[in-house]
Design a protein that fits this description.
This protein is an alpha/beta fold. The protein has 12 helices and 7 strands. The protein starts with a helix and ends with a helix.
């Protein structure tokens, strides 16, 4: 019974994590870890520990424990389904999850303030700044605009946010406190998304285990299956484009803007936000300069280049792609006509 209680407790922690805002440090803790300094293996170690607890419960020679695993399986799927409805880029949602500490709690002070993030060549700095803009509902901001340095566009965005909150004329202390709060929420958003992805992997693990059990007994119809819930997960299939990454952008952008394709517009602040999210999370591949098949990631940068870069050059490249497609489809049309 203890193993069952322990496992259920861990699953509940995923859904109701301990999140605290510490006024003294202008920062947020996630299970007593600062959100801007999470241990690198935090979520991996947590996932391993939960799967070990599942294995302790899953005694396939015990009919009662088999039934318990099925109940836990359905419970996890139900929770994952609920998590998919949450938008972790919603600032108000993030705030609602925090317990407030106005006095010091016995936690070692964070090594860095949340606002102290810096650019380095191998980082996702630009994507982080773009997500920061989205989180604070700053529309039409792109770190790829103009010739600004990384520090420059970070400062520019922070000024825009302070202006939005009516703090542009406030003291430096008040401004820093607000910016730190907002960056802490940005890191919290990442923690919650990482937790949701961990829950997805645990759901997959349980789904595989229960699937094995069902092969050894009569099949029974459950309320949920993982496949049903993850029907909208675009990472299940692999699609390879025999062209470069920029042409992938041109193609999807053209199809989207001409109304041939659409995406769910729930929670999006710009019309193509969820299109870019889809491309970044789908198993879509392109050919790099070496002719290697590489997964599409960081598509925001390419969209911003097309939107804000040299119009004439990118329009010329898009026309070349369209001409190629027209030529290929014209040939195909002729072949079809000849065969009729």
């Amino acid at each position: 019974m203890k193993n069952i209680i322990d496992l259920n407790s861990e699953i509940e922690k995923i859904i109701n994590p301990v999140i605290e805002y510490h006024h003294e440090h202008e920062n947020i803790s996630f299970f007593d870890e600062w959100v801007n300094d999470m241990p690198r293996t935090f979520f991996t170690d947590w996932e391993i520990a939960i799967k070990e607890k599942i294995n302790l419960v899953a005694d396939l020679g015990n009919p009662m424990k088999i039934q318990i695993i099925k109940v836990i399986h359905q419970d996890v799927l139900e929770k994952y389904k609920e998590q998919l409805e949450l938008n972790f880029n919603d600032l108000e949602l993030l705030k609602s999850k925090q317990n407030l500490y106005w006095r010091n709690k016995e936690l070692e002070a964070p090594k860095e303030k949340p606002m102290n993030i810096y650019y380095h060549p191998d980082s996702d700095f630009s994507d982080t700044i773009e997500k920061f803009a989205e989180l604070n509902d700053i529309k039409n901001f792109s770190p790829y605009d103009g010739d600004n340095s990384p520090d420059g566009y970070k400062d520019e965005l922070e000024d825009m946010i302070l202006d939005k909150f009516g703090l542009i004329e406030s003291t430096q202390e008040i401004q820093d406190e607000k910016i730190n709060q907002l960056y802490a929420n940005l890191f919290l958003s990442h923690c919650l998304e990482s937790t949701r992805q961990m829950l997805k992997r645990i759901a997959e693990y349980l789904d595989s285990l229960v699937g094995f059990i069902k092969k050894a007994e009569n099949f029974e119809i459950d309320k949920y299956s993982f496949d049903e819930i993850s029907d909208n997960d675009p990472t299940n299939l692999k699609l390879e484009f025999k062209t470069n990454k920029l042409n992938v952008v041109f193609l999807y952008k053209a199809l989207f803007e001409e109304g041939f394709i659409d995406v769910d517009r729930k929670n999006q602040k710009q019309k193509d936000t969820n299109l870019k999210k889809y491309l970044d999370n789908a198993n879509i591949y392109f050919l790099n300069e070496k002719g290697e098949s590489v997964k599409v990631k960081g598509i925001n940068k390419e969209f911003s280049k097309v939107k804000n870069g040299d119009k004439g050059e990118y329009e010329r490249q898009e026309i070349e792609l369209l001409d190629l497609i027209i030529s290929k489809f014209s040939d195909r049309r002729e072949k079809i006509l000849e065969s009729m």
